[in-house]
Structure formats: C-alpha cells, structure tokens
Amino acid sequence: MAETTRTEPRYGNRPTMKEVAARAGVGLKTVSRVVNGEPGVTAGTERRVREAIDALGFRRNDSARVLRKGRTATVGLVLEDLADPFYGQLGRAVEEVARAHGTLLINGSSAADPGREQELALTLCARRVDGLIVIPAGDDHRYLEPEIRAGVATVFADRPAGFIDADAVLSDGFGGAREGVAHLIAHGHRRIGFVGDRPRIHTAAERLRGYRAAMADAGLPVDGRWVASGPTDPARVAAAIAGMLSAPEPVTALFAGNNRVTVTAVRVLAGRTAGGRGPTVALVGFDEVELGDVLGVTVVAQDPAALGRTAAERLFRRLGGAAEPPRRVVIGTRLLARGSGEVPPPPA
Amino acid sequence: MAETTRTEPRYGNRPTMKEVAARAGVGLKTVSRVVNGEPGVTAGTERRVREAIDALGFRRNDSARVLRKGRTATVGLVLEDLADPFYGQLGRAVEEVARAHGTLLINGSSAADPGREQELALTLCARRVDGLIVIPAGDDHRYLEPEIRAGVATVFADRPAGFIDADAVLSDGFGGAREGVAHLIAHGHRRIGFVGDRPRIHTAAERLRGYRAAMADAGLPVDGRWVASGPTDPARVAAAIAGMLSAPEPVTALFAGNNRVTVTAVRVLAGRTAGGRGPTVALVGFDEVELGDVLGVTVVAQDPAALGRTAAERLFRRLGGAAEPPRRVVIGTRLLARGSGEVPPPPA
DNA sequence: ATGAAAGCGCTAACAA
DNA sequence: TTGTTAGCGCTTTCAT
C-alpha cells in the first residue's frame, strides 16, 4: 500500500468530502462549494455531487470546519439546574435567541456547585464556544479572565460576576422583596418572617436586604429569630417555619425568599390549616410557582424568559462587535396579589 | 517572511501548544503530554510547561482534538421544550449519567415541530456527537438511518421512533391511563371525559387507548363528545371542558391526558367551584403537576428522571459496544390518590 | 467554473 | 524521557 501511516479514526465509517469528490468525479473544493451553497457550480455538476452525497450518506464534519474557520457558531449557558422551571424557562429563552442567530446552544447544570460551574464553563471554552452566559454558583469568576481576554464574550445572568467586571442581567431582588414585605405590612402585619437561601448567594442577600429595608421603612424591629437564611431543602425550611410559628410571639406572616421555599411554605401552611390548629398565616413568595394562581399564592414574580432573552441579546451584541463598557441591566418584578398575602393578622 | 500563506483564524488570539512549547523550550509533544496527564515527563519539565501554560493562558482546543481522535465525548438530546418541567427533569437525569461517563450533553428543544427535531438532530450529528437521545416530535425517523449506520448510537425516549427499529424507553401510557380511568369508574363515574393531545402523538394515542380500554372493561359506552383530542393550549382545553360540562348529559369526571391539560382543568374547575355553579367534577390527570399534592389533584405519575436515566444508560451501553438487538423498555406509572379523583358523581 | 496545495491545532506513531 | 513527522476533514488561497 501507498500510505506510510494508517491511523484509525474515521468516526465509524463516515465518508469525507474527498470520497464524495472521488465518487462524483470532481475536485474536493467543488464538493465544498455544493455543501455550503457557494456559487460557481453548474447545475449539472451540482447534481452529480448531490447524488454522491446521498449515495454515501455524507454529512459535513463540523469539527474540521470549526478548526479551520475559527468560529463555532456555538454559545454556552451554565445554569444551576435544568430541572428547575425557573432555569428551564430562562434557558429556553436563550435557546430561541441563539437559534435566531443561527447558533447552537450548549447548556449544562452546575448543581449550585462552584467547582462544577468552573469545570463546565472551562469545558465549554475548550470547545471554543463563541460566547458564554453564566448563572453563577460560585462568587469568584477570575478563572474566566484568560478566556474573556482570548475573546470569549461573557454575560452573567440572574447573579452578578464576582471579582471581574462583566455584563450582568439581574432581577430586582431588593426592590421586589421590599415591595412584597411592604405589602404584608400594609395588610397589618408587624411580625414577619423571612426564609431564604444562604446569604452568600447574591440573590438571596438582595432579597433579605429588601426585607430589612421594608421593615425599616415602616419603623418595625426585626427579631433575629424571624430570619432563617440557609439551604432551602424542604426539611430545613419546614423546621424554620415551624420554629417561627411556635415562638411565644409568633410571626403572623412569612416572606419566602425563592420558589422552593414558597412551595414548602405552602405545604406547611396547608397542613396547619387542614389540621385546624393555629390561625391562618399570611404568605408572600419571591418568584412564581406553578398553579400559584389557583392556589391563591401571592408572589413577587420574576420574568425568567426576559432575563434569558436580555442576557442572550446582550451576548450577541457583543459577538457582533459592540465594545461598550460592561453594564448591569436590572429587570423589574411584579407583585401578584392572589389572596395569601392579603390575609390580615389575627386580632391581638 | 517565511510563510507562503497567512490565514487568519486563531480564535481571537489564543496560544497554541506550539507556542507553549516554544515558550517552555520543549517539544510540542511534551506539552501535549502534560496537558493530557500522560506519563513520561519529569517533574521539572512539567513545571516549566505549566508555567508557560499559565503565563499564556493556554487552553487546549477540543475541536482539533476531536478531529484527530474521532470521538467527541459528547451526546445529544433532542427534547420538546426545555421549559417544561417534565422534560427538564428528564434532561437533568440524562445530564447526570453523561457526566458520570465523562461526557458532555448538548440538548435542544424541537418545540414539538418535526422539522425542528430533524434539523436539530442532524446538526448534532454534524458536530459528531457519539450518541443521540431523541424525544420524537415527528413520526418518521428514517432521516436518521445514515447517521445510525455511520455509528451514531441512538435511543428514543418518551415516544418510539417511526419507521426505524431502534431502542426506546417509554412510560406505560396505556396502563397508566387505564388505571386512572378505572379509578374514576370505581368511584361511581359512568360519564367520563378525556382531554388529550393530538392522536398522532404516540403518547397521546396510548393514553386514549387506555381510557377506552378502561371504559370497555366496565362495559361503559363512550360518547364521541366526551373525547377531545387536539392541541393542548389552554384556550382549546378550556373550551373542550366547558363543552363537556354544559351538555345535556354532562360528564361527571375528567381524565386529563397530560400535565398541561391537568393544569388548565384545575383552573377551569376551580373557577366553577368558586362561582358556586354546578357540581364538583372529579379529575384525574396523567403526569405530575407541581403542588398537585397541596391542591389535592389525583394523578397518574410518570417518572421523568427514570425515563431519562434509563435511556442514557442504554445509550452508554451501546457506546460501550453492546450489540444486542433494539429493545423497548417500558417504565411503570403510579396512581396517586389525593382527593380530586375520589369525588363521587352527583346523585342522579 | 474548477481544482491543487497549504494549513487550522491537535494526537498517533515512531525515532532518538 | 523527549522530539519529529504525518495527517484528522475541512476551508482558504491562488492558479487554471
């Protein structure tokens, strides 16, 4: 045989352009032209090439194309959990914008683990995504500096980047929480509990800040036992709520710092009412929950799709060459009064 | 200059292994060894290489690697809608299995459009995914034959493939629907409505078949006006339900063919009860809805995570070389009685 | 309108 | 232990 080295790859046994060219009796470049719809091929030649393509089941190898062209037409999205409807909606919105730009989206879950966030983001960079949208799990993003310098457009969503200056698209957690808590105060509550995520999470901290601001605005004190910040697994949340409600001076209303907490709070409060024990407790949740309208759950709604869409549009503006300084975009929230937040406190 | 051709790519301005090698004063292959953790490099050499890597901000270009190695360590997942919690959970389960196999998952939404399903699946093949999990939107998958022949392992999930013989992992829609409807019959209902998706969707057809089987088992007739198969947007579903309930001989119970229908049905029925008009209507839904437990919605629950996990495991078994004939795996459902399905019909 | 040659950044094979 | 060479499948450049 003629070859000196015979290395094995070949992806199963996929035909290459070279083979298509041989079969069609044309040059390699002509096949390339046909495959990419470039001009300069006569109808007859094109037909012969297409026949060879179909006969061989040829499909262009995009890895080789990418290697040569330098652009992958791919963007990455690092989110927290694909199974969470909030991120699902956000991701879907990003996907649609990417699609409109002829770009493939690769998304992956960090599972709220900073190490996984970094691993995933860097894996995507190794695959040479043109751009990256990150929903931070960690709070230090300096690891992305070399990538950004090398030209990977990067936008942060839902939470800002840590220790680097970059675009960010956020919900108004402070304003939303403040409005939600003020709503409870307006309905007569004075002892209001806050149950939210770990305070090192930016969104959680902002919402807690909004809670404190609303209380301060009304001249109300905040008892330390009314604030429960930590992991939002059902067990911990249920215990925290139970504690606040069984204290000598129990809270008469709850502000839930995210949708996981709201769901658990609804369950706990439903159980209390069903059992007939204790008075009805008012509830306002941050972020929407499915069927919240039917259940009458008052919430401060975010717009996850707007968050994703805005972040993606910003990313593609950058990819298009926009060189403005990094900006922070804040997306407003909406208070949806549905019943649970309008329950007055029991008469003293 | 020495070069004859100077082509431009270079991905922004990323250093290559060659440049790292030059800076570290070693050969290209030595850098490759360090980057890939291969043996045969002294500690001192390795240190110098690592310094060069850090100084230059080098990151291996996986496109080039893939081109050479022939395996991408990537699998694709074509699902219907990332924002739907059912698919979100399924996707997340696939992601975890892929991760455990050191593989990246690329998922994308078909938006229930067969054309988009095909476009997305073939795009993933062009990127040379090693394997593919498809949740069909269309019902003809012959377009995948060349890909499968070329070695792309393919598994279908939630719905079977059309016109090709391939692995499939499905929920027991027939058995689940039959059980759910039998449950309503056991509670005294004789006129039961079915609201589901378009019958050309395999899952929808199976569930409708289960409904008919349960009715037949009990010797009950099925009035054509009790069956509404079509798109499950809220408007159409609400209209269908309203029609069934306002007929001269109205249905006394509803079986909802998917979670979208269940949500709309809950809304419609809640509205009726709130208005005080008409009797309470029993409801059993196929597939879980969030907060369904709190709302007391009786459902036939699927296990989307099990579906995803099982499909992914099957895919990786194939990638590992398993050559068994294609198999269909059916995952059972569970009836969760929570109240709405145990309401008796009004006295005649 | 068509094709030959070079090379994208990496890894496999082989030599030193 | 380390380096050199060839080539993965494609696009770019330039010649015909």
Structure, explained:
Two copies of one chain form a homodimer. By secondary structure, chain A is an alpha/beta fold. Helix content of chain A is 44%, strand content 16%. The first copy, chain A, has helices at residues 17-24, 28-35, 43-56, 62-69, 85-100, 114-126, 145-149, 173-186, 202-217, 234-246, 259-275, 292-295, 304-319; strands at 74-79, 104-109, 131-134, 153-157, 167-171, 192-196, 227-229, 253-256, 282-286, 298-301, 328-331, 334-336. In chain A, the strands form two sheets. A six-stranded parallel beta sheet of chain A has the order 2-1-3-4-5-11, sandwiched between helices. In chain A, strand 6 (192-196), helix 9 and strand 7 form a beta-alpha-beta unit. The first copy, chain A, starts with 16 loop residues before the first helix and ends in a 12-residue tail after the last strand. The model of chain A is unreliable at 1-10 (pLDDT under 50). Chains A and B meet through helix 4, helix 5, strand 2, helix 6 and helix 7 of A and helix 4, helix 5, strand 2, helix 6 and helix 7 of B. Chain A binds a DNA duplex (16 and 16 nucleotides) through residues 4-5, 7-10, 16-18, 21, 26-30, 32-33, 36, 39-42, 45, 60-70.
Task: Provide a concise account of the structure shown.
Chain A is of the alpha/beta class and 348 residues long.
Topology overview:
The structure is a homodimer of 348-residue chains.
Chain A: H1 17-24, H2 28-35, H3 43-56, H4 62-69, E1 74-79, H5 85-100, E2 104-109, H6 114-126, E3 131-134, H7 145-149, E4 153-157, E5 167-171, H8 173-186, E6 192-196, H9 202-217, E7 227-229, H10 234-246, E8 253-256, H11 259-275, E9 282-286, H12 292-295, E10 298-301, H13 304-319, E11 328-331, E12 334-336
Parallel strand pairs in A: 1-2, 1-3, 3-4, 4-5, 5-11, 6-7, 6-8, 8-9, 9-10
Antiparallel strand pairs in A: 10-12
The structure holds a DNA duplex (16 and 16 nucleotides).
